[in-house]
Amino acid sequence: MGVEKYSSYDVLNAFFDEGSFNETDAYLKGESGEAEAVTGYGTVEGVNVYAFAQNVDVCGGAMSRAQSKKITELYDLALKTGAPVVGFYNSVGGRLEQKYELLSAYGEILRKSSKLSGIVPQISVILGSCMGTSALIASAADYIIMEKDAKLSIDTIGDKACAQDNLEAGAVSFICEGYEACVDQAKALLGYFPANNLEPAPAFEPIPAYAEPDKLPKYFADEDSLLCVGGGYGEPVCTAFGRVNGYPVGIIVTKGGVISADGAKKMTKHVRFCDAFSIPLITIVDAEKFENLSDASKLISTYADATAVKISIISGTAVGAVYIALAGSTAGADLVYALDDAIVSPIAPKAAAFILDSSIADAPAAEQDQLAMDYVKANLTAVKAAEDGYIDDIVEPDTLRDKLIGAIEILLSKRVSTLPKKHTTKV
Predict the structure, then answer these.
(1) How far, in Å, CA of 150 to CA of 332, rounded?
(2) Is the peptide bond before 236 cis (omega within 30 degrees of 0)?
(3) φ, ψ of residue 196 in degrees (nearest 5)
(4) CB-based contact 129:147 (threshold 8 Å)
């Protein structure tokens, strides 16, 4: 069954805890009758949340002055009370007969959404068509969930509007089948976030770890707590939310080799969101270089500006700019751990070996690679970096979870004073 067969009330009642939904502006009407969206508030797993759902049964859910008024008043309430906003989109477009007033309506929603950004979490759920300026509004949220048959594009013709295209472009974080699965995904995502930027993220009952040594996040994260965000974009970099002993955390995993331009963008977004809501960030470092200078520079600036709890774990190789950006002093990591077989090098390890030990180049060609590898294992190790004060501790996988639990608990009270400024100039 297509999602459009379900009403906006079906969606909102499925989203909110049973019996908790309260509609706002229920009697507000436009020129041609009732407004094209339903707005209201309630609780999701006991937490206050605001939400709106475009009503495709009323003029196709088209944007109008009346719909804009309902949504912007909901944003105002969210700003006053500090609660997340979730928008469910399904619309044929805008009420074009309203002309310039329609443009003003779109602009007011975008202005209010931008004002809320970084103050309360915002999630957009695309259940049907979301095209043109409506796509801009939906994309202003922190995360977008798309029903697999929905359409999202700033191009009203619908070029590259399908869910898979949006996922691969990094515009969408999740694809789900059916409106109920989309609703469940939105509820799950909210479970990792604080209500606003002044409150801590909710702690849950601790659950033992997955205990899978070959998959590092699963080795320290509570079982069934990992939620990958944006899979299909910027890979092999993985960004996720999880819990460690019940504490929500953001997780970034680099998986060796080169961090691509898209991977760096993906990481930057995750760091910015976690920092905005003071969610502790755990970065697993295993990479040799960045693909793109511009995106690497933005990522470095984002890590440096972030004041949330930051813990880095060097799991493999950390080379030059990667170490500096993700684990070094520039990253401002509160604690840096490394597995005992990790490698830390100012340049590519093999090149460093040839430069730092001139005898390697004098050896027979058939022996040079092995000699270089021996040098790296003896001189560019995590232990050597720790001895020089660049790593806080060497850990075994089976002790890492306990280390992280202790670190998170002591660092949750972290306070950082920064110089007054409007914002960084790196975008």
Answers:
(1) 41
(2) yes
(3) -160, 180
(4) no
Residues in CB range of 402: below 8 A, 6 or more apart = none
CB environment 184-217: b (16+ within 10 A), e (fewer): ebbbebbbbbbbbeeeebbeeeeeebbeeeeebb
Cα dist from 356 to 244, 326, 348, 390, whole Å: 41, 25, 12, 19
Nearest to 407 by CA among 245, 223, 207, 267: 245
Strands (E), 303-381: 310-319, 335-339, 343-345
* C-beta of residue 381 within 8 angstroms of C-beta of residue 393: no
H/E element holding 246?
none
User: Model confidence over 86-137: pLDDT tens digits?
Assistant: 999 998 765 555 555 667 887 899 999 999 999 999 999 999 999 888 898 9
| pLDDT score for 330 | 78
Strands 238-244 and 174-176 come out as unpaired
pLDDT in tens, 301-311: 999 999 999 99
244 forms bridges with which residues in the sheet?
A: 247
> Tokens in use for 211?
């205990």
1: pLDDT confidence band, cut at 50, 70 and 90?
Answer: very low
Q: If 0-12 CB within 10 Å is exposed, 13-18 middle and 19+ buried, where does residue 151 land?
A: buried
Q: Are 211 and 191 in contact (CB under 8 A)?
A: no
- 96 within 8 A of 102, measured Cβ to Cβ: yes
Of 335, 288, 343, nearest to 315 by C-alpha is 343
Q: What is the pLDDT of residues 158-201, one digit of tens each?
A: 778 999 999 999 999 999 999 999 999 999 999 999 999 999 98
Q: Which of 51, 48, 56 is nearest to 71 (CA)?
A: 51
> Is the distance from CB of 261 to CB of 295 less than 8 angstroms?
yes
